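User: Just a sanity check before I run the rest of the batch. Below are the structure tokens for the first item. I only need the designed sequence back.
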């Protein structure tokens, strides 16, 4: 069934307006002026030397308007050339004046005022690769010399140009008394002119039309039998791209395209395979809505580093980019004017972010025609899921005064405020957190203000604790009433309390992920692994998601507390081995100590786990992993090979089975879960290795594995 969107598109299938042109039989250039003026065209080539603008006391003749017409110059009936006629409107500027020191009698001043006004009008014509200039000498009678009024026009016939060329015309007087007039025009090709029988280069031109057949696009070329012609499909004005499809064909042809191949910059060229033939350029999809939809469907935002990003797309379309704040409940992402004003974005080119601090709720929006087309939260992979933080906007109102508002879907709510919104109800508490330094500063500017992210978790806990207590009391009362009713129905006997308590669903097992601080690339891998595991029935704990607690309690205390809690809850500790981890283990084992170096908190977790391995308590409680291609398994110290060791993502099924202890009641198929986690990890691992150009993500990883520790 034909699709209506294609048939109704203004850009597709429309026939060009056919224009009938005036024919000039004169083979040479000519000039003429309107009534009252006299014109003379200088013969030969004229140099295009504008010179500098001059001033004068007396009246001068200047061009005020420039326009063109297309005509045909035809020395023979069937051998015509496309020609551009130029029409210049002229006016008088200035007055007759004499300096006071040279003032003469009234009779002596009459002579110059009765003299005619003369000027040289220069016409400069450029059509790549040729350029020409013409000089017209124009004379205006004194009776028409009225300052500030138009005196008429001059007409030049004509500048020859090629079909489909872009021409540029300048007009100025010599000497110059003002800036030149400039006119640029795109000339039509054979399709838009009634010239098929007049211009020989158009005789054998293939004629192209576009139509639709269901989800297919048909390019129909109307040519005579056995005529050879070329057909080229290409992306126009896209850096690094070129021909998409090219072929020499013969006779009438119908080319079929899928509608998913359409993009706004897809253009077509057709031409006859004869010497000096004209190429017809046709871009029918520039305004087609399906082509624009395909463009944004394939466009992708890419984070090159923590400071740079790039928009990968097939075409160069006008678009604007801005930062926005995404709330945790998946509401609309709200644009942030500071620190990043909406600016035009160039596709396939690196751009820099403003100096903002990374936060998982900060995202990037790309808009076109006042509509958001693309949105990506580029830091989510390394920083974890969205946080329930409130964004506060601090604005400078005077030299020493500031005002604070909270960004909400309804707008920026001033604090404190009496309106009924979430931020307004917690206004005093948020301001107290802001003033006491409990909020994280994301951006600051001495003149504009700052952005702050304030955590909301503690307010949610306070609000719901009373609700939970009330619910528990009601549940206990209801349970007690049910027991009494059941006891009354039986008449006697006792009821076992244990039998009335429903069986609880198995709780998700805790997995503590420990790793070394190997740089931003390793953090992305760790974040991707933790995010993928958290989608399974596992409660994942990783330092990347608890940096506020880590900073408040200290790294050593935090790691000891999390390890103790995980093992008490029958959880599992995952040791992620990297070259930096192996090197640190080797150093500590050689010194026979489990105490961390002073001020070295990045690998404090090693002091927590070494005693379990040295005393033989690690079996069944620990699992070791490393990433494919980033570490050889023999590099892992012998001490740590007492527990299962897996290479990810290649050994993902066995790793997940070890984490869940062969759970047969866990939801979902084990093979499907392993494939999902492997895909999530593999995409980040491939991206990391492709950027570095080496089997690792950071310079520290290029030092090679440490030797096996005995």
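Assistant: Here's the designed sequence for the first item:
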């Amino acid at each position: 069934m034909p699709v209506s969107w294609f048939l109704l598109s203004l850009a597709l299938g429309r026939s060009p307006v056919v224009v009938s042109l005036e024919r000039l039989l004169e083979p040479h250039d000519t000039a003429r002026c309107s009534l009252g003026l006299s014109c003379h065209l200088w013969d030969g080539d004229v140099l295009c030397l504008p010179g500098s603008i001059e001033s004068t006391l007396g009246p001068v003749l200047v061009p005020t308007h420039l326009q063109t017409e297309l005509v045909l110059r035809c020395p023979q009936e069937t051998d015509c050339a496309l020609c551009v006629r130029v029409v210049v409107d002229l006016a008088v500027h200035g007055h007759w004046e004499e300096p006071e020191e040279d003032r003469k009698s009234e009779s002596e001043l009459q002579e110059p005022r009765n003299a005619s006004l003369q000027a040289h009008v220069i016409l400069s014509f450029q059509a790549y690769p040729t350029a020409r200039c013409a000089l017209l000498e124009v004379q205006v009678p004194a009776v028409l010399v009225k300052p500030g009024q138009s005196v008429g026009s001059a007409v030049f016939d004509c500048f020859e140009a090629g079909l489909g060329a872009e021409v540029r015309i300048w007009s100025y007087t010599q000497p110059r008394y003002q800036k030149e007039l400039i006119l640029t025009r795109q000339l039509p090709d054979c399709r838009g002119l009634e010239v098929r029988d007049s211009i020989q280069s158009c005789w054998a031109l293939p004629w192209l039309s576009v139509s639709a057949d269901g989800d297919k696009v048909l390019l129909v070329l109307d040519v005579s039998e056995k005529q050879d012609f070329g057909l080229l499909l290409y992306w126009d004005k896209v850096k690094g791209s070129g021909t998409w499809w090219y072929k020499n064909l013969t006779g009438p042809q119908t080319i079929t395209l899928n509608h998913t191949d359409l993009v706004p910059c897809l253009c077509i060229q057709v031409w006859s395979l004869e010497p000096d033939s004209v190429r017809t350029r046709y871009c029918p999809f520039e305004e087609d809505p399906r082509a624009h939809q395909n463009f944004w469907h394939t466009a992708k935002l890419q984070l090159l580093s923590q400071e740079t990003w790039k928009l990968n797309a097939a075409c160069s379309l006008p678009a604007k980019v801005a930062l926005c704040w995404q709330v945790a409940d998946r509401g609309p992402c709200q644009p942030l004017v500071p620190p990043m004003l909406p600016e035009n974005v160039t596709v396939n080119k690196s751009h820099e972010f403003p100096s903002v601090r990374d936060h998982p709720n900060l995202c990037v929006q790309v808009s076109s025609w006042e509509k958001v087309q693309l949105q990506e939260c580029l830091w989510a992979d390394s920083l974890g899921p969205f946080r329930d933080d409130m964004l506060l906007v601090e604005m400078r109102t005077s030299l020493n005064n500031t005002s604070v508002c909270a960004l909400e879907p309804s707008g920026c709510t001033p604090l404190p405020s009496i309106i009924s919104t979430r931020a307004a109800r917690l206004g005093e508490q948020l301001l107290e957190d802001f003033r006491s330094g409990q909020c994280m500063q994301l951006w600051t500017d001495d003149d504009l203000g700052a952005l702050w992210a304030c955590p909301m978790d503690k307010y949610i806990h306070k609000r719901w604790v009373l609700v939970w207590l009330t619910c528990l009391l009601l549940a206990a009362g209801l349970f007690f009433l049910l027991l009494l009713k059941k006891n009354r129905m039986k008449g006697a006997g006792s009821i076992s309390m244990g039998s009335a308590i429903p069986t609880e669903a198995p709780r998700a097992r805790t997995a503590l992920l420990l790793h070394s601080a190997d740089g931003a690339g390793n953090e992305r891998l760790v974040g991707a692994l933790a995010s993928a595991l958290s989608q399974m029935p596992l409660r994942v704990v990783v330092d990347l998601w608890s940096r506020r607690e880590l900073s408040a309690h200290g790294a050593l205390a935090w790691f000891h507390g999390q390890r103790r809690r995980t093992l008490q809850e029958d959880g599992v500790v995952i040791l992620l081995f990297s070259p930096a981890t192996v090197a640190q283990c080797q150093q500590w084992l050689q010194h026979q100590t489990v105490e961390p170096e002073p001020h070295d908190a990045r690998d404090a977790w090693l002091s927590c786990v070494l005693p379990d391995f040295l005393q033989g308590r690690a079996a069944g409680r620990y699992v070791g992993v490393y990433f494919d291609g980033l570490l050889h398994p023999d590099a892992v110290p012998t001490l740590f090979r007492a527990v299962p060791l897996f290479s990810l993502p290649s050994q993902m099924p066995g790793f997940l089975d070890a984490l869940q202890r062969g759970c047969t009641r866990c939801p979902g198929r084990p093979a499907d879960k392993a494939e999902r986690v492997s895909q999530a990890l593999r995409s980040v691992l491939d991206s990391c290795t492709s950027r570095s150009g080496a089997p690792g993500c950071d310079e520290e990883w290029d030092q090679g594995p440490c030797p096996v520790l005995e």
